[in-house]
Fold this protein.
Amino acid sequence: MPLNWLVAAAVSVVAVLAAADGLRSGGASSTRAAPPIREPATRFTPPLAPKQEIERVGSRWAALFARGEDDCSHMIQPLCERIACERAGGVEIRNCTPPTSAFRRSFKEAGVLEIAFKGRRAAARFSNGEVVELESVRDTWWMRKLGASAGRGFFE
């Protein structure tokens, strides 16, 4: 916190000195400086096509899932609960078996090979042979289903 105040004070001093220097030089100049070019605060990034977005999200999710670091940021809540074998609030799901470490590791270098769409849902087949079902929510795709029944009816 003190560092923030120190930086703010230093910036203020520089601004005051610059203003004083501008006033001191006085007189009109025969040359005019070009106005500074301002960069936009944020650059516009056009949205990705659905296939590209699924490849992006799928690759990011697969890497996290393989390391066991999936924090549910790319999954809808029911899938996240199923993987953790725990409902929101810490309630254990009975007769639930979490994915094995070998299954998780199979996604380590897996990439999306094939994508099929059905409305706002899609299925992605990874290079390890596994299929993940996704759902479009707002501006991105979320993992919806994983395992034997994921993607059923998409690739037939």
